[in-house]
Structures
1.
Amino acid sequence: MDEYLQKLVRELGEAINNAINDSNDVNDALERLREAGHEALLVLEATIAFKDKPAELEEKPIPFKELSVEERLADISHEDRQFLKSLNIKFDKDD
């Protein structure tokens, strides 16, 4: 399991733990047990299972489109050119 997935699973565990700890129903039930003279200890175990995505739902990489420098520069708006020039970024041959 990669590091990011471990982090997500840990966050899920913490969220479940917080939900149980913050539950008025759970706390009230534990309190009733204590009032009846019983020391109650709540231990829960959770199993998290992962299911692979179906192949048709997997994200496919966007194909890279070969463009010349001239084609890329043609897509830059006048405002973008002005902004780049204000940052001293030169991209035109005549600059």
2.
Amino acid sequence: MSAIIFTGAQIAALRIENPNQLYVLSCLTGLGYGTLFGVYPALVADAFGPSGMGINWLVSSTLDDSALD
């Protein structure tokens, strides 16, 4: 579902010509991220297994690329 919302946001970004209509893009992007964040724990549990769900969720939701340097 979030992929469909993000696709809609990309289509809106391509079609918006008036900067006053950027709220549409912002709303669709926020809705997409909100939807993805809602199912993300299930994706982490499916990918890594339920045994280490707590630490895997903590690391995947708080770690950014700068910590890997």
